[in-house]
Write a structure and sequence with these properties.
single chain, alpha/beta, Rossmann fold, Dihydrodipicolinate Reductase, domain 2, 2 domains, nine-stranded mixed beta sheet, six-stranded parallel beta sheet, GFO_IDH_MocA-like_dom, Gfo/Idh/MocA family oxidoreductase, nucleotide binding
Length: 388
């Protein structure tokens, strides 16, 4: 009989709902997990969110304030899916209470807050997980395997492009995501942090950056009460406010071993919906992956050009979800893998999931890119402290 682990959820938005489903699905796909998640309590200031938590997701209780959740004896782990500006407070409270936590990215408002969280977790020995879900795509797992096995030869350059349209409508509300005091960065932290993680997970650590940023939609209508998502609409015909962070970013980078990298991201691109791509080039071949065709890997390892390989058994955790190539996995499955890794980390008392240190590293690259965009200079990125 698996041991019970009580789950406390902070914020019942889209990602909180996804965390909840992922906990319940984790043991379906990873039946050897020694922990059985129980959805105990959810916290959300919105009455509708609290009702959804109990009536739909199946939480035993819902409260308005996260401070009424973290210290409870029946809560063993905490999922932090709140807006970014609350992450530090909630994560440090979970750490102080000795509770492992699963937190979405960006983990903090920049490298300083992310570093506080990562150091505190390391000092207390608190295992954690961070929502870098794209690294769990089976084709990305295979890409990393090929790179580290030397199948592409010496890696020469890598390219990541994350282009989306979720903020392309000028009528989209001026939510907290567009404010420096609440989010700090715009698309750099929200989206390109995923690209940084892919580069560092698949190829190696980013050591130096040179960047430029642009804000194309400079004003947005003020939000209606409760608006918080990427897709919230502003009050039509009402007052507008200034967008305080970047819609677009382009980054040149050097990795520790001299590999060149190009990273580009936009939240206002018209055309791409979720065009998140990774390309790795080497002296013996190259590979390409695009989230919009998540279950395919394009590989060129001879002179005949690219061939498309369908993800299947042997590609990451694919066989946990589907019996054979051609039957596709989806976005929610990536979060299920994340939940399983988090639960395994809790059970074994060691870090198996993408960590707070990984999030701190990504935030350091984002901060350096912002500094470079402001100064026009190349910025070196200090390696993290060894104990993190």
């Amino acid at each position: 009989m698996a041991d019970r682990v009580g789950v406390g959820l902070v914020s019942v938005g889209w990602m909180g709902r996804l965390h909840s489903r992922a906990y319940l699905a984790a043991r379906h796909h990873f039946p050897e997990l020694p922990l059985r998640p129980e959805l105990v309590v959810a916290a959300d200031p919105d009455a509708g969110g609290r009702a959804y938590a109990t009536d739909v997701l199946g939480y035993g209780e819902a409260v308005a304030d996260h401070r009424d959740l973290i210290g409870r004896d029946d809560v063993d782990v905490v999922s932090i899916c709140s807006p970014n500006f609350l992450h530090r407070e909630i994560a440090l409270a979970a750490i102080a209470a000795g509770k492992p936590f699963w937190i979405e990215k960006p983990m903090g408002r920049g490298a300083t807050e992310s570093g506080e969280i990562a150091r505190a977790a390391a000092e207390r020995g608190i295992v954690n997980a961070v929502g870098f879900n794209y690294r769990h795509a089976p084709a990305v797992a295979k890409a990393r395997e090929l790179v580290h096995a030397g199948a592409l030869g010496r890696i020469t350059n890598v390219r990541v492009s994350l282009l989306a349209d979720y903020s392309s409508d000028p009528a989209g509300a001026l939510t907290w995501r567009f404010r420096r005091d609440r989010a700090v960065s715009g698309v750099l932290g929200d989206l390109l942090s995923h690209g940084v993680d892919l580069v560092q997970h698949v190829v190696g650590r980013i050591a130096r950056v040179s960047a430029l940023t642009e804000t194309f939609i400079r004003e947005r209508p003020l939000p209606a009460a409760g608006a918080a998502s990427h897709f919230s609409r502003g009050n039509e015909g009402g007052p507008a406010g200034t967008v305080e962070n970047e819609d677009y970013a382009a980054v040149l980078a050097r990795l520790d071993d001299g590999v060149a990298a190009v990273l580009e991201s936009s939240r206002v691109a018209i055309g791409p919906r979720a065009e998140y791509g990774l390309e790795v080039y080497g002296t013996k071949g190259s590979l390409r992956w695009d989230f919009q065709r998540m279950n395919e890997l394009r590989l060129a390892d001879d002179a005949s050009g690219y061939r498309t390989i369908m993800a299947g058994p042997g590609f990451g955790h694919f066989e946990r979800f589907q019996p054979g190539a051609g039957t596709s996995m989806g976005f929610d499955d990536l979060k299920t893998i994340e939940a399983a890794q988090f639960l395994a980390s809790v059970a074994e008392g060691r870090q198996l999931a993408p960590s707070a240190a990984d999030a701190w590293s990504a935030a350091s690259v984002v901060d350096a890119a912002l500094e470079s965009a402001a100064s026009g200079r190349w910025i070196d990125i200090r390696a993290l402290e060894p104990d993190a």
